[in-house]
């Protein structure tokens, strides 16, 4: 059912890409710039149909570099904005993802991961961009990345992604994958109550007193937008609180520390994970995205065999839930990390486990998903 | 002044004898104002500013007719003109 | 003329971040005078400065955004135009200006330039053309004339340049002009026309770069470069911009080349997106 203001409500059978677009609209996104790419095209297609219905703007840009920049510009005009892409397009967005981080621009970037490197298998799944999501742009920064495991979460987590991006003034990545993007399932859509929609912190001072990068305790500076009379300056160069470039190691130190710390120190407000049977788990399967659904089945089967296995599903992958993995490392004997790459998140698990528990990688090179039996077998092996 | 041809935007460019004001700290001594002034109202001085550039100075004979060219082409927003009348009132 | 003239402040300071002066540009650089013309043009149009946003890329002229006292964005190399596209479409009440250099706009950002012109996005692009990459020390760029010397064309440039007015006109720009900084009155007027005209408007500003391009091509000091512009420029309003190629020597055509009306991207949006709302 569509309500008067063009938002959808009720139960629908739809694919993850479409659900993501609907989540964005429910979150208040009214600007989308993108470039067609398999398997993310459906997000753009749905936005091109839906945004005009709700008074938003869709533009198909000349490439992904332009798309990323256009959503930054739209955000600075005060409109919630999003782009979606995959594979090579994600690589093209990296440069200006950095600009978004530096200017502290709320926006959402959806990556429906496919198998790489390069053109790889455009139509089939991969999870090979997880480290690129973390470190793909140059320089040192923190990022927020969420990983949905179902069309329902494509809807829900897109709303979460917008909220986090507004709250912390940072581009938020939705690191989905081809299978979640293309699978169709029941999606329950709801209108989000206005109080559940976060909007960026706004300046409380008159323009003469406004400094674009002066923040309080939460390290997130209030954000004026273009056209309001603040006449602010922002730059991708290292800058001071006024937004003016300052080319010194001291200014660099101060800025980068704040950009990183505003995420690190606010981690408890950002992290989200699902835990299944971890209370007494000796074997912890750590998985994310579509892989976690297979892992959940494997854990169930292992429990039926009497093995104390559990699942740690990462919903927010970046920042990484270091503390929780450390706790589990003290309790469990082994982590099993199935992922559709040749070992990325397993490196984080291994780092946090720091030798207190084994970390076992179950790689899949892409083009398909793990079989539950493969994970179950690994659990059995680890249990002996 | 007698003009051999009336400029197309003469109505909005009416000139009046003026005084040239220099913000010494901004000047980078490029000499544009001196070289392109149609009446040669300015010369380079021997005075050096804090950045080490020689700066221009207006000649005392008041030749500036207020055409505004120096103001328009100064790369450093360092000089501008004030109509003599206003300048004498000390505005 | 801006406001009342005083003995204490340059009238253009009203539109500048005076607290950031002196600026970073070299002695005799032409970026400064083009900015002076630009703010006088803003004044001339009477546009509400609270509604003007200026976006720059990277390079010497990429620093312009940092000196003009409006909402201003110093973005990444070549990407000012798509950033500005987002601003302009998300808030059509804004007057969005892109002020950047030839290398930024036409080389690394060339793809964005042609598409913004094709779409006829409501924005004014001011391209400061100094015929080389000044900030990085004088490498050849997309406008460097054939045979010209640069740090990466030590034997002379073998890389044919863009004729920018022809390029953007061919792509559909609504307004195209070219002036130099030694034509301040025409430049200011042209910028004012570009700022008030709907659609994609483009002003190419030629100016001296005594530090790199001028030095490498033995053009003398800034004053000599300006004199050369005075001598070489032929005011040619209304000529077909295809004839406005710039060589190492010889005449340079300047003037207002294109001034036409065609629906902007936003005009199309309003009309066509309207269909979605009627349902
Ligand atoms: S034009 Fe400006 S910077 Fe150059 S010498 Fe004159 S006042 Fe100084
Ligand atoms: S205003 Fe004209 S006449 Fe007066 S000093 Fe400047 S250039 Fe010369
Ligand atoms: S290098 Fe050339 S363009 Fe850059 S500031 Fe110096 S003179 Fe101007």
Secondary-structure blueprint:
The complex is a heterotrimer of chains A (384), B (91) and C (279).
Chain A (H helix, E strand, L loop, with lengths): L9 E6 H11 L4 E4 L6 H10 L6 E4 L3 H13 L4 E5 L1 H17 L3 E9 L5 E5 L4 H6 L8 E3 L4 H18 L2 E7 H5 L1 E6 L43 E3 L13 H16 L2 H4 L2 E4 L6 E5 L2 H15 L4 E6 L1 E3 L3 H10 L2 E6 L5 H9 L4 E6 L8 H12 L1
Parallel strand pairs in A: 2-3, 2-4, 4-5, 5-8, 7-8, 12-13, 12-15, 15-16
Antiparallel strand pairs in A: 1-9, 5-6, 7-14, 11-13
Helix pairs in contact in A: 1-2, 1-6, 3-4, 10-13, 11-12
Chain B lengths: L17 E5 L9 H5 L5 E7 L5 E5 L10 H5 L5 E5 H5 L3
Antiparallel strand pairs in B: 1-4, 2-3
Chain C lengths: L30 H15 L6 E5 L14 E4 L5 H11 L4 E7 H7 L1 H10 L3 E7 L34 H8 L3 E6 L3 H13 L3 E7 L3 H7 L5 H11 E3 L16 E8 L5 H14 L1
Parallel strand pairs in C: 1-2, 1-3, 3-4, 4-6, 5-6, 7-8
Antiparallel strand pairs in C: 5-8
Helix pairs in contact in C: 1-6, 3-4, 4-5
Bound molecules: iron/sulfur cluster (3 copies).
Largest sheet of chain B: 2 strands, antiparallel
**Uncertain segments of chain A of ≥5 residues (pLDDT<50)?**
none
Task: Please estimate the helix content of chain B.
Answer: 10-25%
CATH architecture annotation of chain B: 2-Layer Sandwich
Taken in chain order, the helices and strands of chain B follow as: EHEEHEH
What does this structure look like?
- Chain A is of the alpha/beta class and 384 residues long.
- Chain A has helices at 16-26, 41-50, 64-76, 87-103, 130-135, 151-168, 178-182, 249-264, 267-270, 290-304, 322-331, 345-353, 372-383; strands spanning 10-15, 31-34, 57-60, 81-85, 107-115, 121-125, 144-146, 171-177, 184-189, 233-235, 273-276, 283-287, 309-314, 316-318, 334-339, 358-363.
- In chain A, strands 2, 3, 4, 5, 6, 7, 8 and 14 form an eight-stranded mixed sheet that branches. A five-stranded mixed sheet of chain A has the order 11-13-12-15-16, with helices on both faces. Chain A has a two-stranded antiparallel ribbon with strand order 1-9.
- In chain A, strand 7 (144-146), helix 6 and strand 8 (171-177) form a beta-alpha-beta unit.
- By secondary structure, chain B is α+β, with helices and mostly antiparallel strands.
- Chain B is 16% helix and 24% strand.
- Chain B starts with 17 loop residues before the first strand and ends with a helix.
- In chain C, 34% of the residues lie in helices and 17% in strands.
- Chain C has an eight-stranded mixed sheet with strand order 2-1-3-4-6-5-8-7, sandwiched between helices.
- In chain C, strand 5, helix 6 and strand 6 form a beta-alpha-beta unit.
- Chains in contact: A-C, B-C.
- Chain B binds chain C through residues 9, 13, 19, 21, 23, 25-26, 28-32, 35-36, 51, 53, 68-69, 71-83, 86-87, 90-91, and chain C through 1, 4-7, 10-13, 16, 21-23, 25-33, 35-37, 40, 181-182, 184-185, 188-189, 221-223, 226-227.
- Strand 10 of chain A pairs parallel with strand 2 (71-74) of chain C, so a sheet runs across the interface.
- Bound molecules: iron/sulfur cluster (3 copies).
- One iron/sulfur cluster binds next to helix 1 and strand 3 of chain B.
- One iron/sulfur cluster (SF4) binds at residues 22, 27-33, 55-56, 74-76, 78-79 of chain B.
């Amino acid at each position: 059912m569509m309500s008067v203001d063009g938002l959808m409500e009720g139960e629908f059978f739809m694919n993850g890409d479409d659900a993501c677009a609907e989540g964005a609209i429910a979150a208040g996104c009214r600007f989308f710039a993108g470039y067609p790419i398999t398997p993310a095209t459906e997000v753009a297609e749905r936005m091109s149909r839906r945004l005009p219905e709700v008074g938003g703007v869709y533009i198909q840009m000349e490439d992904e570099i332009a798309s990323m920049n256009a959503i930054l510009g739209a955000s600075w005009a005060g409109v919630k904005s999003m782009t979606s892409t995959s594979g090579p397009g994600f690589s093209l967005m990296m440069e200006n993802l950095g600009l978004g981080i530096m200017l502290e621009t709320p926006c959402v970037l959806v990556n429906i991961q496919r198998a790489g490197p390069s053109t790889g298998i455009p139509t089939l799944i991969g999870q090979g961009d997880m480290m690129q999501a973390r470190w793909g742009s140059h320089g040192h920064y923190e990022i927020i990345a969420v990983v949905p495991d179902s069309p329902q979460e494509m809807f829900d987590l897109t709303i979460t992604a917008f909220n986090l991006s507004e709250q912390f003034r940072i581009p938020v990545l939705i690191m989905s994958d081809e299978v979640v993007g293309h699978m169709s399932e029941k999606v329950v859509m709801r209108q989000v109550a206005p109080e559940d929609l976060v909007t960026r912190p706004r300046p409380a001072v008159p323009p003469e007193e406004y400094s674009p990068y002066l923040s309080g305790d939460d390290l997130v500076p209030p954000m004026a937008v273009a056209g309001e009379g603040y006449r602010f300056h922002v730059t991708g160069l290292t800058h001071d609180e006024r937004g003016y470039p300052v080319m010194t190691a001291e200014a660099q130190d101060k800025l980068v520390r704040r950009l990183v710390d505003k995420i690190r120190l606010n981690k408890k407000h950002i992290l989200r994970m699902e835990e299944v049977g971890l209370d007494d788990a000796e074997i912890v399967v750590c998985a994310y995205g579509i892989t976690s659904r297979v892992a959940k089945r494997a854990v169930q089967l292992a429990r039926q065999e009497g093995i104390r296995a559990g699942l740690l599903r990462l919903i927010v992958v970046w920042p990484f839930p270091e503390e929780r993995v450390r706790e589990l490392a003290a309790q469990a004997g082994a982590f099993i990390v199935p992922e559709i790459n040749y070992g990325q998140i397993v490196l984080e698990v291994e780092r946090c486990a720091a030798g207190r528990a084994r970390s076992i990688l179950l790689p899949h090179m892409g083009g398909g998903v793990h079989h539950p039996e493969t994970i179950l077998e690994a659990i059995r092996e680890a249990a002996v | 002044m007698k003009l051999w041809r009336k400029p197309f935007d003469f109505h909005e460019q009416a000139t009046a004898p003026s005084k040239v004001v220099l913000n010494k700290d901004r000047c980078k001594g490029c000499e544009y104002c001196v070289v392109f002034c149609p009446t040669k109202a300015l010369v380079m001085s021997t005075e050096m500013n804090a950045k080490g550039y020689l700066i221009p100075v207006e000649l005392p004979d008041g030749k500036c007719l207020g055409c505004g060219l120096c103001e328009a082409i100064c790369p450093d927003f360092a000089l501008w003109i004030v109509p003599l009348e206003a300048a004498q009132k000390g505005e | 003329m801006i406001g009342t003239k005083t003995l204490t402040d340059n009238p253009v300071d009203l539109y500048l971040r005076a607290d950031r002066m002196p600026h970073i540009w070299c002695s005799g650089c032409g970026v400064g005078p083009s900015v002076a013309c630009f703010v006088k043009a803003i004044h001339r149009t009477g546009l509400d400065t609270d509604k003007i946003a200026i976006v720059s890329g990277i390079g010497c002229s990429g620093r312009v955004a940092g000196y003009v006292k409006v909402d201003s964005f110093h973005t990444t190399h070549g990407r000012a135009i798509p950033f500005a596209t987002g601003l302009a479409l998300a808030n059509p009440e804004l007057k969005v200006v892109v002020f950047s250099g030839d290398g930024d706009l036409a080389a690394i950002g060339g793809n964005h330039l042609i598409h913004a012109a094709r779409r006829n996005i409501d924005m004014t692009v001011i391209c400061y053309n100094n015929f080389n990459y000044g900030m990085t020390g004088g490498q050849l760029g997309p406008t460097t004339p054939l045979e010209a010397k640069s740090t990466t064309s030590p034997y002379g440039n073998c890389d044919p340049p863009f004729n920018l007015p022809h390029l953007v006109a061919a792509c559909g720009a609504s307004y195209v002009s070219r002036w130099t900084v030694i034509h301040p009155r025409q430049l200011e007027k042209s910028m004012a026309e570009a700022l008030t005209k709907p659609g994609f408007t483009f002003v190419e500003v030629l100016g001296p770069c005594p530090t790199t391009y001028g030095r490498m091509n033995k053009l003398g000091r800034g004053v000599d470069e300006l004199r050369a512009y005075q001598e070489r420029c032929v005011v040619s309003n209304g000529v077909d911009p295809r004839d406005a190629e710039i060589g190492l020597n010889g005449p340079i055509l300047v003037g207002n080349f294109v001034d036409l009306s065609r629906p902007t991207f936003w005009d199309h949006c309003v009309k066509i997106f309207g269909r979605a709302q009627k349902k």
